[in-house]
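Record type: monomer structure entry
Structure origin: computed from sequence
Chain ID: A
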Amino acid sequence: MARPDERPTWRIGELSRRVGVSDDLLRAWETRYGLLHPSRSSGGYRLYSEADADRIRRMQAHLAAGLSAAQAAQAVLAEDARGPVPQSPSEDVELGELARWLREALDVFDETTAQAVLDRLLAELTLATVLRDVVLPYLGELGDRWQDGRASVAQEHFASFVIRGRLAGLARGWGGGRGPRAVLACPPLELHDLALMVFGIMLNRKGWRIDYLGASTPLDQVAAAVDQTSADLVVLAASTPDVLQPLRKELAEIAARVPVALAGQGVSAAFAEEVGARHLLGDPVTEAEAVGGWI
């Protein structure tokens, strides 16, 4: 994909009209973060290019994905330094092709390319689409390859670290606000929590505050967090049944005090009903969108 045209063309008012950002905010982003690269006309006016407009659009996409202004600007400038992700010169690249590039980059420990692909996905698609149609299928496929020996431990750890870092950026500030409050955790011995992070990110986009306890959390600590935060909901995720089966009594006790939802391949509808919990059967993005309207 060719870089956008750097030739100076527009004054700031025209740039503002094209990107839907006020003159004042454009000047602030230029001064604080060096996001715009204007040239001077013969009359002394600043002139901006299509490349400046492209940087602003990518800045907006990163802000919509949950980054702070400083983080979004840093991401845009890093993208410029890396260069664009390759693309067919005659047509837009399909979502499946971008997903393939992501997988191939992570398999060979190429974080630079992997981050560039993720940047492009988040700039061009909704967050729900990126998480539901790219990130979650990739994590599931990676787990399958690791289990049957087609992916090494090193590959699994590296890819998980990169994905976790991006999810952590999207989760920034998810405990703030005034909406209902959810405590999210994995029970003891459950170490796979990336899908739960995805759920929390999307639930936060529905106005919920998230208290995230993460992997392998003792249930007495979950109960203590509920007491301390006056949570409106507890969501626990498990990838295998054996981590939940011994915890029936503790789960039922928590469910008697606050609504509990159980998610993951390790949960059955019968088990959830037995302990008085809801069963979240679908993918984390879809379930978060549904749970968002419970309260």
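Annotation 1: The mean pLDDT is 89.
Annotation 2: The CA atoms of residues 66 and 172 lie 7 Å apart.
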